[in-house]
């Protein structure tokens, strides 16, 4: 079964509450990008914004930590009761197993983000402990980029080895022109960003995108 979340870094923050009210009955969850200006050359959302969002929405939040030293923020996110945390293995190096264990011990699901150029085989020893692999179809840090075609091969290889325990999620350039390719490669979960928020009628646009990714349009 395919599921659909939305990347809130792509919304117009001046309309955030209105957008959330429109989307909450429709989406399966929310993708929250936190950037520190170091791991990626940009800044995005923060803990205070998460608290405000939680006052409005009823669907789960996944927090994508595009930061150096993501382990420093795990306890805070746990107390905020977010559902899951997505980290980049290149920010952890040898501490990846201990961070996976820490996230799980705090009661959150663990996602691993694979940026372009990161070898997916490094995750094979840890698959039984990973709930989700988020393949970055663009370089992390900025919305509105075009798909990096070589990442389709990564998705296809992962879909051939993952079992039902681990969700395969795609992040970036999730739009009508990539829908057929993304679905055919075997992904389970899709994050709608710029292609959704470019339309002022979010409910209609969400339905259109979902139909495309379900192969019904």
The Cα radius of gyration reads: 16 Å
The parts where pLDDT drops under 50 for at least 5 residues are none
The strand line-up of the biggest sheet is: 1-2-3-4-5-6-7-8
Task: Report the total helices.
Answer: 8
Mean pLDDT: 96
The profile of the biggest β sheet is: 8 strands, parallel, barrel
Shape: globular
Total strand count, please?
A: 8
Q: Which structural class best describes the helix and strand composition? A: alpha/beta
Task: Give the distance, in angstroms, between the N- and C-terminal Cα atoms.
Answer: 17 Å
Helix content: 25-40%
How does this structure look, described?
The protein has helices spanning 16-23, 47-54, 74-79, 96-105, 151-161, 179-184, 194-197, 202-213; strands at 3-7, 29-35, 61-66, 84-87, 109-114, 132-136, 167-171, 189-192. The radius of gyration is 16 Å and the shape is globular. Strands 1-2-3-4-5-6-7-8 form an 8-stranded parallel β-barrel, surrounded by 4 helices. The chain is an alpha/beta fold. Helix 4 links the parallel strand 4 (84-87) and strand 5 (109-114). The mean pLDDT is 96. The protein starts with a strand and ends with a helix. 37% of the residues are buried. It is 30% helix and 19% strand. It contains 8 helices and 8 strands.
